[in-house]
Design brief:
The complex is a heterotrimer of chains A (340), B (310) and C (282). With 340 residues, chain A is α/β, with parallel strands linked by helices. Chain A is built from 13 helices and 12 strands. Chain A starts with a helix and ends in a 7-residue tail after the last helix. Chain C is mainly α. In chain C, helix 3 runs parallel beside helix 6 and helix 3 packs antiparallel against helix 8. Classes of the chains: A alpha/beta (340), B mainly alpha (310), C mainly alpha (282). Chains B and C meet through helix 1, helix 4, helix 5, helix 6 and helix 8 of B and helix 1, helix 3, helix 4, helix 5 and helix 6 of C.
Chain lengths: 340, 310, 282
Amino acid sequence: MKLKRLAGALAVVACGTTLAAQGVQINGAGATFPYPIYSKWFSEYNKLHPEVRINYQSIGSGGGIRQITNRTVFFGASDGPMTQEQLLAAPGKILHFPTVLGSVVPAYNLPGVTGELKFTGPLLADIFLGKVTKWNDAQLAEANPGVSLPNTDITVVHRSEGSGTTYVFVDYLAKVSPEWKKRVGVNTAVNWPVGVGGKGNEGVAGLVKQTPGAIGYVEPVYANQNNIPFGAVKNMAGQFVKSSAAAVSAAAAEAAKQMPADFRVSITNAPGAAAYPIASFTWLLLYENAQDKNQAKIMVDFMKWALTDGQKFAEGLGYAPLPKAVVDLEMTALAKVKIQ
Amino acid sequence: MARPRFPARLDDLGFRLGTGLFAFVLVGIVVAIGYELARQSQLSIREFGWKFWLTDTWDPVAGEFGARPFIWGTMYSSILALLIAAPIAIGIAIFTSDICPPRLRKPLVFLTELLAAIPSIVYGLWGIFVLVPLVRQLEIATPDALRALPLFSGPPLGVGMLSAAIILAIMVIPFTSSIAREVLQAVPRAQREGAYALGATRWEAIRMALFYARTGIIGAVMLGFGRALGETMAVTMLIGNNPRISLSLYAPQYTMAAVIANEFTEATEELYLHALVEIGLVLFVITLLVNSLSRLFIWSLGRQSRGASR
Amino acid sequence: MRRNRVRQFISTTIVTLCGVAVLIALVPLALILFYVVQQGIQGLNLDFFRRTPVPVGELGGGMGNAILGSAIVVGLGALFAVPVGVLSGLYAAEYPGTRFGTLTRFAADTLNGVPSIVIGVFVYGIAVLPFRRFSGLAGGLALGIMMIPLIMRTTEELLLLVPSSLREGALALGATRTRAVLTVILPAALPGIMTGILLALARIAGETAPLLFTTFNNQFWSTDVRQPMATLTVQVFTFAIAPYEDWHRQAWAGALVLVTTVLLCSLIARVATARLEKLQRG
């Protein structure tokens, strides 16, 4: 078998070398949150431009930030904007470009409970703080009148590595729970009081799916593709809202009117009756003045495609397209990236 | 051997230098690993000092790092694995060296070594989809009386210390059993034959051989321990990734190798990265000590039996 | 008389327990092989070898690039490890009593015990960070470092097994040391050394941890060793921890390919060793 593989390998090397000689490969890494749509985008873009291979590895937002700071990848991706310290630690100026809107949902596994569960912000905080430990706890019963909740233990599932999905989720928890803000704080990786860690959105979804009584936080596409139910969350206006493209767009509406120049803004716990409270932009990270100008040029071209044609893939995969106002601002901002 | 002539001595020197160069590369790599690990963990060493080994917190937000939960997880899982694996491995070694008919020996040895050939990622894969659900069923079926004990407390997740220990045990068995078998086969025939001549039963003769080879067997067990300490992939997928010290077999915990595998590419701050490398350094030092000790045990047995058969 | 019967009973019990131990060890082996084959067959088709991974949500695709990548990276590792391993094994065999010879052997044993994740961290520091990129070369280096002690030990042991009559004969005929070793002793041990190398390759082909931060991963066909490369082990890992059923199927298929390759190499090595032993005895 090794011989056959060797012969096959040699044949492919011969073809591969010619391909590699013609094309360009751009490496990126980062958030798992937008991985479903990024993998779609890079595949579609490759169909339009076969000589461009954009290789994206979803290792977590923390990884995206770390690797682009080290310059071991050309671009990064993160759902948590880089902090001032992280920006200062980079060898050059890094620009944030929102690519799509997404959300984080509380996915759970509670056999025997039909119908959707409702959660309030403080309730979620208490669950993840380890203060609420049973599914038939008073707080859960209060938010879900009429639903018969079993006496099962709650198993908290969180991310085991640095993650923007975590950032979005704990950013929201810190806004609705002073205790969370004080005890745990906000970052891509936090010191979780309780729970078991899964690797990537994929790992968390996998664990929730396999563990009765589990609750975790994931990007909705991971829940939908695996038939994992997720709950509605009470927003600032007092409405229980379930994540949807419309609800997420509503959350971004306010922020779109006052977008800061560097696009680093949080839209969790957004105002508005229809707004979903745990929503976020996700950003592509590019150096303003990268060393490889050819790759920079390709990435700018890709971004322009993603911000226009690419947005049509968003809803099908559980994301929301960017508001037009934001896209217009970005097209202008892309000119900042030096391509000569 | 005749004294080499002048050109031959030069040639001999050339040979020695030529091959010695590559031997030097080998030694150099080991030294370089230790040096590089120490160098890349300077920030963490200077920041925390000895407290690093004793602190329980692993808080990237606050920038506080301590290795104790990981040292605990690594030690606990490896010791548990050894408790399961050592008797089985020694039993296999005894069976294949002493008891089984000669025709069965080669096939049985081959089969046990197959266990060693299975890649760690395949163990992890099998672990997630087959072992973890089984363990979860076991955890759910645990009677409440046992549940009250700290050893069996906690929700039935499936992933956790027990799954990790079981998979480690399976992976360690072939290593320990093959060394133990070699060690037992090296016991001089005279010993056993003398025992039988004096009317010993099968087991009594084996017991004598075990006693004779005890240092080597301890070495084999320690070698298995060293193997368990460093195992990464299978453990990462089964242990639950929670940096908490817990006596419970059902609790998700964390090992040194697993935390490095999970968090290394993403450590956003320098201190975070250095703390992870320092954990790598701790792991390196511990496995170095355990493996050196085990080799010492096995080697000293070699001297002992060579001395006896003279 | 009764004491004898008790002793006999104890002996029989223990002997049975040892047999049970063998059976206990064989159970997981059978289960693992069974599952790998049963699940893996379902995902195995021609596409699996010919195609690359497709975006989330689309079905199909394969791990062709990962299989090729693994072959390349393992090959690179062997390129580095075989000279270092064989020649340092040669040194240790020729100068066994010296301090440096013992040191070499100790270093090999130490390196053998270093956890693969630590080697990954080491190679990241020296081959990825300074060059600012993940690469197949770095992965090859990491795998090579892991192969060196295996090859070195096999070489040393086989060289020591060569009968001294061969060496003495060569030297008596006036050969220099280099000549004696290279033309007589090494060729005698070569078949065994080659099987040792094959076994080392098989072992290392199954490694994942050292590749996580060195070759990284790649969605496309890539033979450029200065870029991240897909490898079978990392791809299986990535797919295994995901929640998509299709990815799980492919992960099992990848595991089947891995296990088959490793077992085939071990089998070939074993058969070759048996044939060699027969030749040498006859």
